[in-house]
Design a protein that fits this description.
Elements (H helix, E strand, L loop, with lengths): L1 H15 L11 H6 L3 H12 L5 E5 L2 E2 L8 H9 L12 E4 L14
């Protein structure tokens, strides 16, 4: 499922760009052909209303509606076995690993 969500993410990026900026990038038709019809129908329904169809999840928060996801959903996203969507806004969820916090620098006295 990881490849499917990445394909949807690329498709969303390509569709949001102006047509002139799409030259040299992956063709939108090729990306759409890689996605199963029911998933593509939900994707199109969201984008037709001007909403994000694929949202990054950072720190357990949906990047589209900015609401905290249930803990079980956030944990299942890390496993990347199933395609999940936000219970609040309907966007497909793309897990983004949280960057490791930088270690604090000791003050020099």
């Amino acid at each position: 499922m990881d490849n499917l969500i990445e394909t949807l993410h690329l498709l969303q990026q390509q569709q949001r760009r102006p047509v002139a900026a799409r030259v040299g990038a992956l063709n939108v038709a090729e990306l759409r052909a890689r996605v199963p019809a029911p998933v593509l129908a939900h994707f199109d329904r969201l984008t037709a209303h001007g909403r994000k169809a694929v949202a990054d999840v950072r720190h357990g928060v949906c990047g589209a509606c900015h609401l905290r996801l249930p803990q079980a959903t956030a944990c299942n996203l890390a496993q990347r076995h199933e395609l999940r969507f936000c219970e609040h806004c309907g966007a497909y969820l793309r897990f983004v690993e949280d960057p490791t916090p930088a270690s604090p620098v000791a003050s020099v006295a």
